[in-house]
Amino acid sequence: MTARLAHILRHPIKAIGVEEIESASLAKGRALAGDRRWAVAHVAAKFSGQPGAWQPKMNFLRGVAGPELMAISAACNGEQVTLRHPRAETITLDMQSEADRNRLVAWLEPLWPDDRPAPSHVVEVPGQAMTDWADPFLSLLSLSSLAELSHHTGQALHVNRWRANLWVDGWAPLHERALIGSHIRIGGATFEIVQPITRCRATTVNPATGANDCDTLAALESLWGHKDFGVYARVLSGGEIARGDAIEVL
Fold first, then answer.
1. Which CATH architecture group holds 4-30+133-249?
2. Chain segment 206-239, per-residue pLDDT in tens
């Protein structure tokens, strides 16, 4: 079976909404365009206003601290982002509008735990994705690995639980981990598989409900002896990718 690209996902606002797209144009040494373009800082962030560079994840709202965030879906139309949550009114925001950025903060407040530092303001650093690493990685995961983990836990684990960018169909379970240090081609782009992704408690949350419902970390440990799931990849040569593209190990 030829391995193929099954899903392309981006997260316009860090930890706040996931969106599936049909195709993307990748650039050498850059993250997926539109992924984690914005983030929401909290009042205990180690900076004020707009930082001039990437900042560590502990400065921002995250699913590990606010599980309800995991149930948000997103849809982008240029600078506009529409967010939906099962227990909140759908909201459409012009992310270049300061008033709408403030509306986002207010919309998030009921979804954010009272015992955590409150949402403060939207952050954007032009040209820098607010991913967990400063490096311009894309995350790449395997549907067969997910199927094996789902079987081990006894429940179907949705792809949105993992906040990935690219999902591969057709590899043997954990084949992506065996490819660390290798190069692959997807559509018109080539990648280096760089390192495994060590997971946090955000993955214990059901993205449909925002409730903790599966100890994914314990399941990873008992099944494979570690808490890694998926790998980070770096774009070596840019090009177009699309759902259904064949994936070749170089």
1. Beta Barrel (2.40)
2. 999 999 999 999 999 999 999 999 999 999 999 9
- Give the pLDDT score at 170: 97
Distance, CA of 90 to CA of 84 (rounded, Å): 5
Residue the block writes with tokens 């760089």: 194
pTM: 0.96
* Burial readout 89-102 (b: 16 or more C-beta within 10 A, e: otherwise): eebebebeeeebbe
- What's the angle, vertex CA 134, arms to CA 129 and CA 140, rounded to 5? 75
Mean of pLDDT values over 94-112: 98
Q: Are strands 138-142 and 166-169 parallel, antiparallel or unpaired?
A: parallel
Please give the DSSP secondary-structure letter assigned to residue 89.
E
Domain boundaries defined on the chain: 4-30+133-249, 39-123
Show Cβ contacts of residue 111 under 8 Å, excluding neighbours closer than 6 positions: 66, 68, 69, 72, 85, 87, 88, 210
Give the C-alpha separation, 145 to 175, whole Å.
8
